[in-house]
Prior knowledge:
Layout: H1 29-40, H2 42-56, H3 61-85, H4 92-99, H5 102-124, H6 127-134, H7 142-162, H8 164-194, H9 219-230, H10 235-238, H11 249-272, H12 278-283, H13 288-297, H14 299-333, H15 352-372, H16 375-404, H17 406-409, H18 413-438, H19 443-467
Helix pairs in contact: 1-8, 1-11, 1-14, 2-9, 2-11, 2-14, 3-9, 3-11, 3-16, 3-18, 4-5, 4-16, 5-14, 5-15, 5-16, 5-19, 6-7, 6-14, 7-8, 7-14, 7-15, 8-11, 8-14, 9-16, 9-18, 13-14, 14-15, 16-18, 16-19
Amino acid sequence: MTDQHVPAHGRTADPAVIPARLEPNAIGVTQDTVIGLANVGPTLSVGLVMVGLAAAAAYGSVPVIILCMLPLLVIANAYRRLNLWQANAGASFEWVGRAINPYLGFLTGWIMIAANLLGTIAATVVLAPSVLAVFGSSANSKWPNIFIATAVLAVMLVIAIVGIRPTALVQVAMASVEYTILIGFSIAGLVAVISHRHGTFPITSGWFSLSGIGGKGDLAAGLLLAVFLFAGWDATVYVNEEVKHRSINPGRAAIYAVAILAVIYILAQLGLQGAVSPAKLQANSSSALVYIAQSLAGSGWAKVMALSLALSVTASVGVGIVSLARISYGMAARRVLPAILGHVNHRFSTPAIASVVMGVALIVITWVYLLSTSVANLFTTLIGVDGLLYATFYILTAFAVIAYYWPRIRSSLWDMLLAGILPLAAAGFLIWIVVKSVGTLPASGIWSLIGILASGILVMILVRIIMRPSFFQTPRERADR
């Protein structure tokens, strides 16, 4: 059976839904794929995770990345199929709410906002150090960090408000430079490792084992870090109302983004984790990419790597604002968030108010975090919590595709595999990662998760009582056979 969309039985237009008013057909599938990649920030993610992943996997990083990629490709295909049904900026919020339960849908949307917010903050707090590294300056003082982070957030907010076209144009330009630098250094590092250059760490069979060198790898810890590496590709779907062939291309872009990320990460881990000795890699974990680039090619090229990192962080921050605004817009369209967040600027055809709210929130939270705790402690908590949040709504999306396509799953072997067995296996895989990883979180991480969930439940109750949106009476929908 094909994936051609067939409306659910008895579904009618909901008068409480704000019609789509974002600019249609503004960007293509290539630009949308870049948006998904930019939200992840490949260079940023490698910089944050490479050292930890090498340690957790005992240098068996490549099989861990591949093992993580497979279920995420299945989840990306679930996004593709659900987007064929409903191309809505709220994405999983809408799909879970209509296919499973509207209350669970609201909580899914809340988790999506929290995950994107935390992910963007994690990018913002490394923005200033990466920018200052380009000029060889120290980033020990908090105020230069705050000033640079605020300035970049403001610039990317303006671009987000002006429109999705300039946003995509800027993202493609930054990506072209960023990926060229990261891939170039990865290849240079791989050549150095293979040629046994002095100071490198040689490749052994343990690099290609799930248990790592000497069987000392922690698979669960490695997989959680790998989930964080990939987290964010779903941004391709949040701009679906602005993509050409909005029902088809955003889902394709999601699959492309996951596959491209896997290739980049495999090459980066192979080429960079062994470019210096394990002791030196761990000793320079806070600036591993810049240190490796300096070791490979000297201080001048280290600044080039710092430029790639700065571009990656800037791109991630920019798409983070766009994603948060679109998710809020999609939820406001269903009246479960204040209607003003669903307002679309007539000149720019963007959710300008939602963009401003999210941009200002990011600036305020970044100030609070940078003034109240150390950057190192913040990294540890944010990375752990953010990976779990992304895994959670990916799991819920997998269940949504099973629920919506249930009639087809029971009548078609092909749909049973693609919309039933594989999403269930992918969800089970991610659930295993979540369960294994929660026990390793510090108390601050556990309380952060509890706080996010509790606040979501509280807001949901208040919205249900005060705003009384019809969304909470949404009947479950199923695909036709």
